[in-house]
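Data availability (excerpt). The following record was deposited with the supplementary files.
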Amino acid sequence: MPHANDRVIFTLQCHALTIMVLFNMFLLVGNMRAAVAWNPLNPDTEQKMKTPVQILTNTVEQSLIFVPSTLILSTYLDGENQMVAIPVLVVLFAIARTVFAIGYLAAPIYRSPGFFMTLMTNVVALTLVSYHTWMRGSIVAYPMAVAVMAVFAQQIFLKSFYKK
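Predicted structure:
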């Protein structure tokens, strides 16, 4: 795929799986609401909807990071050998979100493996984007480096703040 347009189109086509995962989480909320909580204003059924809604919300949040990062990454990757990373990341993301949902439905503590897998797919995608942006000398390379350092500084500050 010599052209960036072709790589972006390929990535968008791969994200059909991401959309299916999102739709599955949407169906989880809808089915649960239809089965046990058809009145969303009833406080008695609100608790039954809490976990499915949190699964859907977290999946949307993670997708908002994952989809753009893979689209940006696809503009940097050259050739079909490197583009293999996109479907691999998308499949891993889909598996991770499914593991997250199954674990969370079983018990909140069991969401951790799926959350960690999702985190790792996002970290890999964002790291590759940062690397390619920096190595190609893009105009946004320096602001991106400052932003990354700010994120690390914020994490250090928050850790010290919450220890008190």
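Summary of structural features: Helices lie at 4-14, 16-36, 43-76, 79-83, 85-106, 112-135, 141-163.
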